[in-house]
Specification:
Largest sheet: 5 strands, antiparallel
Shape: globular
Strand content: 5-15%
Oligomer: single chain
Structural class: alpha+beta
Number of strands: 5
Length: 174
């Protein structure tokens, strides 16, 4: 057998408590700048926000999340639904430009049986893809290689969200 493959960030998720009591997505709208940074939030708009996935499937894996705590699309009000998917469109465009992705996977896992890690709070995954990025690592070792730390990825993406307007007329980038 070859050398060991290391993905130490996965152990935090594997061993960590799954019932955290409070929702990991709630409270972003009113969070301080420091808390948003520690939660890897990239942009905040009146109805939704963008954050890095703490346990990504690929470098730059983003989540677009409504502020309202709902589990299903039909539970969103029409304005929240529209705002969420406008932000998904903006995020996809900006992420593709920021990381020069050749394609994107965009999806929603509704319910725990569909693979939602946080089934109680709807969120949209946007995963950048490149030619040849599917290789033996995830298939044989259930390991993904991330070429950049989450903090550095967040810092890089902020510039691509600077012109996205926020609810107070400023920038949504946080």
């Amino acid at each position: 057998m070859g050398n060991p493959l290391w993905a130490p960030w996965r152990m935090e998720y594997i061993l960590g408590p799954k019932d955290r009591g409070e929702c990991i997505f709630c409270g972003v709208h009113d969070a301080s700048e420091d808390e948003r940074r520690s939660r890897f939030v990239v942009a905040v708009t009146p109805c939704a926000f963008v954050m890095l996935n703490r346990y990504p499937f690929a470098a730059g894996h983003l989540l677009v999340v409504p502020h309202v705590h709902v589990a299903a699309l039909h539970e969103l009000s029409a304005p929240d639904h529209d705002a969420l998917f406008r932000l998904v469109r903006e995020t996809a465009t900006r992420l593709q430009r920021a990381v020069r992705a050749e394609g994107l996977n965009i999806g929603i896992n509704l319910g725990a049986v569909a693979g939602a890690g946080v089934a109680a709070h709807l969120h949209v995954h946007i995963v950048p893809r490149w030619s040849g990025d599917t290789n033996f690592m995830p298939v044989l070792a259930d390991t993904r290689v991330m070429p950049q730390a989450l903090e550095a990825t967040r810092d890089h993406l902020l510039g691509f969200f600077q012109d996205l307007p926020s609810d107070d007329g400023g920038s949504a980038a946080t």
